[in-house]
What we know:
The complex is a heterodimer.
Chain A: H1 10-22, E1 25-30, H2 36-45, E2 57-58, E3 67-71, H3 79-88, E4 94-98, H4 99-104, H5 118-125, E5 130-134, H6 141-154
Chain B: H1 5-16, E1 22-27, E2 30-34, H2 40-51, E3 54-62, E4 66-75, E5 80-89, E6 94-96, H3 106-116, E7 119-121
Amino acid sequence: MVEDGIAEMGILGSLTGWGLKKSPWVYHLNAGACNNCDIEVAELLTPRFDVERLGVQLAGSPRHADALMVTGICTRQIRPRLQEIYRQTAKPCLVLCLGACACTGGIFHDAWHFAGPVDTVVREVDPDANIAYIPGCPPKPEAMISGLATALEEL
Amino acid sequence: MAEDLESSVERLKDWAGDVPVSWHRPRPRRVYVEVERGDLREFGRGLFDDYGARFVTATGTDMGDRLEVVYHFSYDPSGLIINLRVTTPRAEGTIPALTPAIESAEWIEREMCDLLGIEFEGHPRPERLILSDDWPEGEHPLRKED
């Protein structure tokens, strides 16, 4: 499934674009992370950072998600599952590669169980996927908010 | 109940008798005990049931011509760590499973079987544990020649 630029999709397109930017629902997927990034994601939702005040909400199903927040290197076992979950998301969908592992593979790049990085695996099913990178080990919650805001601006 | 480190070691040596093929104590709180493959299960069971040490975990290593498994036990009353070492020739690659005697060894033995290709004889569920479903049969990522 190919997303055209939101601007080229007419009224419906601008509506979905508005909805996506106004209140992005995020599906969180651990693709083989050590859980440290995931702990920081939990921090993002707690009162100190409270991203829900910005309209960001965790979605329980990828079918309800505007953004896929992926942590971890993408192991050999999760690779087909990551692709299937990306297929299930409503398009346009923003993929956020969260942390050094999701961005590049990090220190696990030459390991035997590595099948990523995440962007390559997602681009296999959708060459035009919108992918944003938030590096860090783990990234600070501030960096996640900044990364999400920048990515949504550039959509 | 605390116990003196030296008396724990003495008691261990008395209890073990002449079963171990070698003893090595590099630091006060650590004892390496090597046993023959055939003695492993009975020795491990006794260490757990009779001597009263707690099974912590196990580690497997590819040593080149041999594959080595070290079962780590902790004797908490004195803080003594007992490393039960057993090796197998690379060509054979079999070790009697400790799982029938100590249930909590089940997953770590399955993991060592996945990663190093050591066959644990008598393991109740010798199935794949941590390798991905599409990993080719007979390939072991932590074997050095692969």
